[in-house]
Amino acid sequence: MYFIFSLLTIFISKSVSLTFVSPEICALDQYFDSSQLICKQCPPGSQATADHQSCSCDEKHKKMQADNQSKIVCTPCSEGQIASVDGWGCIEQISDTNMCKFNEARSFRQTNGLLLPKVTCTPCVSGTHPSPDSTVCIPCDQIIHGSQCQCKPPNVKTDGICINPNDLVADSPNLYIIHENGLKIETTFFRNHLRIAEYMCRKFQNQTACQLLGNLCVLLHYKRGEKNRGYGRNACDLSEGMPWLYYLQDSAEHILSKSDIPVQYTFESENRNSSFLNFMLAAYSLTGEYLGMSPATDGTLQLCMLTRSSRAFTFQVGKYYTQQFCNLDLKYDNFENESVAELYPVPVLNLNYEEESGYPNKLSNAPWLWHLNRRIWLIDMSSTKESSDIENRIVRYAKKISIQTTVQLYSDGKIAPPLITIEYSSISLESLRSGKTMPITFEVVYIDSEDNLSFFLKIALTVSVVLCVVLAIFRSWTWARQTGKRVLDFAALIKFVVAFCSFASTIVYCIIAVASFYALMIHKSKRHPHVLMPSFEGENLWFLILVVAFVFKVVDMVLFYIEQITSEVFFIDWEKPRPAGSRKKEASVAASVISSSASTVSIWRLVIIANEWNEIQTYRKSSHSLQLIVVLFFLKVLHFESLASVEPGFQLQQISQESCDTSLSRLAIVASLYFIVWSVQCIFHVLITEQCFWNQFRYFIDLCSVCNISVLALRYRLYGYYLHGRSVHGFAEADMDEIHEMLRREKENLCEQRGLEPNSKNQIFTVCLQPQFRKQYDDIFDVLVTAVKSKRMHNGKSLSTIEDEQRVKAFYTMNKFLINFIDHCITELPYLIKDRLFTEAMLNCEFQDTSNCSIFYRDPSETAFSNLFFYGNEAKLMIFDVMLFTFVDMIVKNYTIAAFVAYIVVKSLKIVRKSGGRKNIARTIVFLIPPLVKVVVGVVEIPCSCSALLFDRQAQLAHTRTHQFNTVQPSPSANCLAERKSSAAMKLCSGAIDS
Asked: Which ranges of the sequence are coiled-coil (predicted)?
């Protein structure tokens, strides 16, 4: 176990940086101060040791303890004398001595410890012991290790050193306690080293002892003793002489906002000094020895193994990096300034730092409460050992290390001091031996000083929420007009909530996707760090917002599918039975007249139209399967997924180990690629497929005209679409020759146009109906259903037979009602045909009052009724598709799995939509069972406005036998004359329907 640490302290230097040195470059009269990482001048009369780690008196000076016993000084020897080998005395200078015998020590002292005038070979006496090189007998009371020493009272031997117990810090069990995950561990290492290290550091300023004492404090997560909680003092309270461990004078906000680093970083890799963060690590052993400095690219900070190239690219400027899940002290950053290497202290945020009030360093939104530190460790298996004979119960390790670099705004690449965030955890030794994977995270992220992207997103989202509320209110008001609601009720409130979910999900997702794409492209294209992606932790807020947006979109899609499969549709059949002799063949063969009996109207035209209607319900401009295949092809085969890596440049290459993407960068690439592929599909479909090959909806309109069937589809109670399919020839049931003749006449313009208005081609209308129309529409069903209830067992007929008869009756009744309405035969239900106003077209709504008169708005595009299908909601479906894809990808981080899940979900929803739509047609069109039917028990009164429309089937047949059809469309007045007379004659009648 070792510690990583550096010691440029603001208390002794006004400079914020320090020229980079190592022990090897110190002069002969200088030693390397491992606390401050600089070369210092040795005191007079001393010289540096061979390793330059300390100074010792030269051969002309001896060591002497100062009066205050807190410092050792070098005192000159007399003329002709040199320092003894132990350095504590002076003896006569001699040229050389012979080696002493095996059982003798070459001694400079007498048996009583007094110095000899010259070297002699003398056995060591009691109270002394041979030095490691057998040159002297050393008094045990000196500060020198010796396993053979017997300390004189009152001194006691502590860690191999004779020390007066009164000079040590008072012994207490709290000095040796470590609290970890609820465990209270009394560590042997603390008991053996803490008190002696404090003594050596305080009394003799021994650097190794001071470093050891600092290490013990770091192992406690810098937690000071708290007497009021019963913890007492600990290593962090014994701060005298310890190295720099805390930032005490400045707040964390001030430290992290300094602009003292002069380097302008760039994304250009040619200059390694300005395109890489050259972190240098100063390492110390657990016992305090300085181990030297090394670059961070050697992988010291990364517990998970990486290749050499991967470790180097981890610290490339602008390159985000994260590494997680593997089996099981950064303090200075090397900055280049005019070819002179300098060091800058890097603060540490230890998330395990605890105070009586809690863990202030975990408050990410309160940096003014942070306590920054200077030293870290990575793995601890020593301090948790409770006895030399017992194995560790736990192993402590650095669970997460995050290097966050803040780019100064408008500074062309300058950065603020990086921040190292570290979090520790522990794992039991049994779990470690069993091969359990430890969740270890190492990440490098960049943020800008103002966090521009997050600021923009917050402003945009705030504005969008207000906009969504306004749009939801407007949508709810429009919906209330289209459904005929006059007061606010629970249904209107639900509509408002769903409308808000619809707008909010779409707008929020688009804002985040566009902002993320912009930030990613700027990050990749600029020379200097400019607009940066959020950090991995900074993404948490936006991930939560995207989750909420997706939930909102799911709510919106649920209502969308419900509306799609519950819309009311009625096919208006204009065909009437043709009298005998009206159908004559005009072929070259001899003419023949058909049977004199009246021909009946076939149901198959209606079945064909209903089937085609069902087929186009899930028809789209784009293919979802093709969409996913193309997107995956670009991502995986052409390596567009590498563009999601948050690093400079646009290299399309296979994802490497050091590449790192974020949730927002993946969303930006997937959403943009998805939108481009979708747009290409839609443009190709509209401009090429529909113009040159087939137009599904144009074909459906033509089919309706050929079949002599119109369609009235109500999206809401008073709002829907009308497709005018009335044949200009007056009939549709014809043989091949007649059909050919009809088409020829249309081609040569020998007949009227197909439009609802005279000489008009417009067949599609958006209809806003008056409430009276809906009332009569519902009254027809009310009367018929009541009749079914009252005659279920009449005439001995079965229930199913009676219901079938009533359904057939209902079809003809409703068909006649709608024909009369379209032909203006019902005076109390008038309607106007007009164009939308400009504002109505822009806002896709209607402002004109329809309380007394229905309005048919022309649709020049002839695609308005596609809003009842997938085709007219292509954008909404695309937004849901891409949100589903990216939502799954944010969870699993795998494009293939996300595409597979998206395919399954969309395919399932398509099946549900098609099945529900088919059942809706069977329920509301073919068999005419309306979604909502009022059941009235008792006497049924037929409203006057409705009674004239209810007629006997035989009367209808008799009427149609006398009607002669021409090859041109009949005028509405001729069709309605008989009905108006019948209506006037029956104006006051009422009663129940006779079967």
From this structure: none
